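Standup notes, structure subgroup. Blocker cleared on the zinc ion input:
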Amino acid sequence: MTETERVTVDPVFEAAYEAAQKSLREGGIPIGAALARGGEVIASGHNERVQNGDPIAHGEMSALRVAGRQKSYRDMTLYTTLAPCAMCTGTIIQFKIPRVVVGEAETFPGEFDLLRSRGVEVVVLNDDRCVDMMRTFQNEHPELWAEDIAE
Ligand SMILES: [Zn+2]
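Run returned:
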């Protein structure tokens, strides 16, 4: 899908994308996420492995941490620029987040089968900006990328 084919701009997804860009500017891994309820952003965050030396701080985990304690996630959507890994998928299942919107799954397949098997709705946007952002990063920093996905 090309940029011109993108019919609507989702402000929540843009918050996730902006968080990824912020991480990139900081020298970190460019993966961002945002948690939303009814189209309203509750929190956003980005991968902080490099910035904080925190291996668990994937974009999704950081956004959930920023959101703080929530009584329920059942009316929420988690947005992420890249398909969620096994750790983040486990957290999505554990917190019973019913819907995940993903920027792209071309550069990393994630755990869609596991998410869907647990009843989580997965929407993939095929956003070219996210693919370009990750391809560039993976080419320029293969060691950081391998570290983040434990390869
Ligand atoms: Zn993850």
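Discussed briefly. DSSP finds seven helices and five strands in the chain.
Next: hand off to the docking folks.
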